[in-house]
Amino acid sequence: MTKSSPVDDALAPELIDKRIADLGDWRGQTLSRVRTLIKDADPEVVEQWKWMGTPVWAHDGIICTGESYKSVVKLTFAKGASLKDPSKLFNSSLDGNTRRAIDIHEGEEIDSAAFKALISEAIALNVTGVKDKKKAKL
Which of 45, 47, 48, 103 has its CA 20 to 30 A from that of 59? Predict the structure, then answer.
């Protein structure tokens, strides 16, 4: 098994743009829409490109990934099991102890306000974890 080399974060937005364009269907439109919502929720979000071609959004750690499959766009939240989800957006990977995912199928819309709230909560959890690690080192 070969490991992919990391991509400079500066190139990631271009690679994500290319992925969206290459999909050229509802999956590209969906990925573009959630990308916009993520940036709206956090203008300081860092876009990354990992694991042989997966868009990743981060702020003091991974917020979520955006994978596209034949019949679904999957948004996997790295610490999803620790997030409150009163709007019940998580509909996949519900049995794990760490991650949770949102599967979006063709024709489905995501609740923009609830999604942005989930993004903000994920960021807050990441920031708290970074602060806790810094305190532990003191």
Answer: 103
Domain boundaries in the chain?
Answer: 12-137
Q: How many CB atoms lie within 10 A of CB 8?
A: 8
CB contact at 8 A, 62 and 78: yes
Tokens at residue 110, please? 């995501």
CATH tag for 12-137 (out of 3.40.50.300, 3.90.870.40, 3.40.50.150, 3.90.1150.200): 3.90.1150.200
Whether residue 49 contacts residue 12, with contact meaning beta carbons closer than 8 Å, is answered with yes
Binned at pLDDT 50, 70 and 90, residue 8 comes out as confident
Q: pLDDT tens digits, residue range 64-121?
A: 999 999 999 999 999 999 999 999 999 999 988 999 999 999 999 999 999 999 999 9
Q: Tell me the pTM.
A: 0.86
Q: Which two three-digit tokens encode residue 106?
A: 């063709």
